[in-house]
Specification:
The protein is an alpha+beta fold. It is built from 8 helices and 9 strands.
């Protein structure tokens, strides 16, 4: 358990939900309780495929918008699972290179591991129309533009992020869960990036630790072969302390407010 991580996520998300409200973007946030717990509007969770025309439910998908080559996108390009020419590059991009156009992707939410979906399967699983997906995409682009403009003031670049949605009684998209945090989004140091260095300010910091000790490779091999996944090794005390400090400092960097 990382001390103050939950409070950081709740406070950061409440900051963005308040901005979304001012922007006229529907969301489920009601208020922040005791500085570490969000009180939100709940939506129905539907098991299995969602019937067409359903209302007031959590969309069983995760929506990812990418602005730079990083994370699993870079892994797919490196392993040849994604042709970089299909996302606008003439030559193979390097890690951290800006995408010619934002890349919008959808994955499963309730499966054991996130799985990329094409639009047809996403619509089938989640009871969505093409128009619903386009509306969600536009909301994400609008919100991310605001996120990036805010964090640039404090020396950060918003590289990518994921969001979740519900559809309300009018089947209008509602932003839910948490977003714009060190868990859902990737933030880089602007000055370092301009000097050719990538400094990760997100939970990627922890992922890189698990890569360095070989756990990530073991996990991927197990998933590929269908074997049982290896247990996650506990973080050493110094990593716990550093990660806790990162979450608290990122709250301040992202929002401009004191912890």
């Amino acid at each position: 358990m990382i001390p103050d991580k939950g409070a950081s996520l709740a406070r950061t998300s409440s900051f963005w939900f308040s901005i979304a409200y001012k922007m006229g973007l529907k969301n489920h946030f009601i208020y922040l309780e005791n500085g570490n717990r969000m009180i939100v509007r709940k939506f129905n969770i539907i098991e299995g495929k969602v019937p067409k025309g359903e209302k007031n439910y959590l969309v069983p998908l995760e929506f990812v918008m990418r602005y730079y080559v990083a994370g699993s996108l870079n892994d797919r390009i490196e392993k040849g699972k994604l042709d970089y020419r299909n996302i606008g590059f003439r030559n193979k991009p390097e890690y951290g290179e800006k995408l010619p156009e934002p890349l919008f992707e959808m994955t499963t939410k309730f499966e054991k591991t996130d799985r990329l979906l094409d639009e047809r399967e996403a619509m089938e699983i989640a009871g969505l129309l093409h128009e619903d997906i386009q509306d969600i995409k536009e909301i994400i682009l609008k919100m991310d533009e605001r996120i990036n403009s805010e964090v640039l003031k404090r020396g950060l670049i918003h590289a990518d992020g994921k969001k979740e949605f519900a559809l309300d009684s009018e089947r209008s998209p509602v932003i839910v869960d948490t977003f714009g945090t060190a868990d859902e989004d990737r933030f880089w140091e602007k000055n370092e990036y301009e000097n050719g260095n990538i400094i990760e300010n997100s939970k990627e910091f922890v992922r890189q630790y698990y890569r360095s000790i070989g756990y990530y490779d073991e996990l991927m091999k197990a998933r590929f072969s269908g074997a049982n996944e290896p247990p996650i090794p506990a973080l050493p005390e110094d990593m716990i302390d550093r990660t806790s400090s990162l979450y608290k400092s990122l709250y301040e960097r992202i929002t401009g407010m004191k912890w």
